Amino acid sequence: MSKIAEEVGDCQRCALGKDRNMPVLGEGPLDALLMFVGEGPGADEDVQGKPFVGKAGQLLDRILKAAEISREEIYITNVVKCRPPGNRVPAIEEIVVCQKFLEAQIAIINPSIIVCLGNTPAKWILGTTEGITKLRGRWFSWRGIDVMPMFHPSYLLRNESRKKDSPKALTWQDIQEVRKRLDDARLRRSR
Ligand code: SF4
Questions:
Q1: How is domain 2-190 classified at the CATH fold level?
Q2: To which H or E segment does residue 145 belong?
């Protein structure tokens, strides 16, 4: 992983490298059973060089805590490692040139479960054009890894309702499913 960090640190393979402050490789234990993949760093992440530290990250922390999943036991990263200006969706050509880093991270960590936060990682991993509203809450198998798409926390910040079938209520269901699958994976590892 340190080799990947070195390469990402100097990377100018796509236009996003030009305007970034710091690339954000990701963080977490290299033997994590559970990996979260978001879209790309935001403004706070770009300044700190760490993933999910802004408002969306703080909401993610609260979701994890409520589900009794420790952030310290998961590996968190993004599809692109440099901040898209104005938090726009990364362009397909940026994703294509950056994907070798995410591929390498997944190969090193070899998680049992990947949670895709939002459209961009869900579409990249599942190779689908379906949107997150249709994909979320369903389990997929990808290269032997269980994959669960969920709403991105920044989307939840824009949709405050907790009513039945609201994005927040659905996310609560989804994280419970992830927690159950994580418990199974922990059990398998302990045997
Ligand atoms: S987004 Fe990825 S490919 Fe583009 S400059 Fe950053 S690390 Fe390199």
A1: Uracil-DNA Glycosylase, subunit E (3.40.470)
A2: strand 145-150
